């Protein structure tokens, strides 16, 4: 289950935001300070953090990188009206996922809800990156094996053909040898092609999540 931490000194504001996710399959925790939720962030039971309230720019600039060190895939959403463009650019470079203004109506709450759901999708996609990278390595090893086998075939066939022409008047043995080598190459290509298909499918799914994140940010 996805875990969401809502940190805001304003109890009414954080309770109102928690109500937005009442019907969703999300474990929501509320606190007046994100420090109280560090254990969940470290244990990765919390994947998205929503920071709201009044911020000291110096503290925010230092705090965001610290949270990312606890979990590099953590998605952080900042809700604030009073924040300088310089600070916003800085924390975005540090990896903040989204910045939203304080909700003034239902549309504002819906914007934050969409941002949170998109953040969970992005988090899941980031978590799957090591598995995709490992699959790519396996695929490349298979390709190297196939190319090596093919090179051996290309080197062996001329020598074998030259030898057999001295002994046999027929090229049947040469054809059988080439056919057998081709069969070996095909047998190695089948799992490689299957792996490529799975990688393409995972990449398409990841691209879909990224597009969703961009769409939310544009809104």
Automatic annotation (TrEMBL):
Membrane-spanning segments: 145-162, 168-190
InterPro entries the UniProt entry points to: CheY-like_superfamily (IPR011006)
Keyword Membrane: yes
Protein name, UniProt field: Response regulator receiver domain-containing protein
Keywords from the UniProt entry: Membrane, Transmembrane, Transmembrane helix
